[in-house]
């Protein structure tokens, strides 16, 4: 081996990795998360008499408890859990990119900054970037996934951060609740609006814009809402191209499967199916359907 080749080989061997952490509301499939080496910190759901980390309770058990006990509150990961995950990621000299749920929806982003300062007290040269995804579910998930893929490709920290920011501009999350009950109880929609909506059988198509849940439009039936949602997806893809796409659902796998097959037939590409967990699910309720995707070119 020539000297120049050896130096390049040694340089490659000594090059530190860039790791990725996200939170449990990303709902990335476990096998993909493990394949890409993405670390997870968990939010929690808190009933009056008991609490669960989101990753420790399945939807069936959670919604059964919610029927019995009422809608719980959610909380961000503890500072100690985030600190331990960060410290473990950088202790051997690797760098770290963290992508978390919207700071308008959770205190996770703020907790992460506290944990980062704690890590820097002992590992002063640690390189840690914290990114606010401005969303949740697989809109957050895709941001973490593209970060992990870029890290695997050997991209620099600056490049990875830019790739995540570009993905945020290209992604969209549309979803349709089965009922307005949970949005009302969770404070995501006013009581009068929920009452009128229920009486008139109005179903909202919701989205996430600038970090908050917003109303995109209203229709009269869930079927019409799903059709309208699919139409909007197709408009975006025709104009901006398609990166990846998934169907979200909360305890309505058969409906989600039909929607995924419909999209697969139209797009001629794979469409993932992903269950939304308790932390986001408690605000929307079972029966909700959604589509999350990112385009090849910026929408914003």
Low-confidence stretches: 3-14
Topology order in helix (H) and strand (E) letters: HEHEEEHEHEHEHHEHHEEHEHEHE
Gyration radius, in Å: 20 Å
Number of helices: 12
Number of β-strand runs: 13
Question: In terms of structural class, how would the helical and strand content be classed?
Answer: alpha/beta
Silhouette? globular
Quaternary organisation of the protein chains: single chain
Q: Describe the main β-sheet briefly.
A: 6 strands, mixed
Walk across the major sheet and give the strand order.
10-9-8-13-11-12
SS strand fraction: 15-25%
Q: What is the average per-residue confidence, as pLDDT, rounded to a whole number? A: 91
Give the termini separation: 50 Å
Helix content estimate = 40-55%
Give an account of the 3D structure.
By secondary structure, the protein is α/β, with parallel strands linked by helices. Helices cover 47% and strands 22% of the residues. The chain has helices at 3-14, 30-36, 59-69, 79-90, 108-122, 137-152, 157-170, 181-185, 191-199, 222-240, 253-267, 278-284, and strands at 18-23, 38-41, 44-46, 51-53, 73-75, 95-100, 128-132, 171-176, 203-209, 212-219, 244-249, 272-275, 289-294. The strands form 3 sheets. It has a 6-stranded mixed beta sheet, with helices on both faces. Strands 2-1-6-7 form a 4-stranded parallel beta sheet, sandwiched between helices. β3 and β4 form a beta hairpin. α4 packs across α5 (108-122) and α6 (137-152) packs antiparallel against α7 (157-170). It is globular, with a radius of gyration of 20 Å. The relative contact order is 0.14. The model is unreliable at 3-14 (pLDDT under 50).
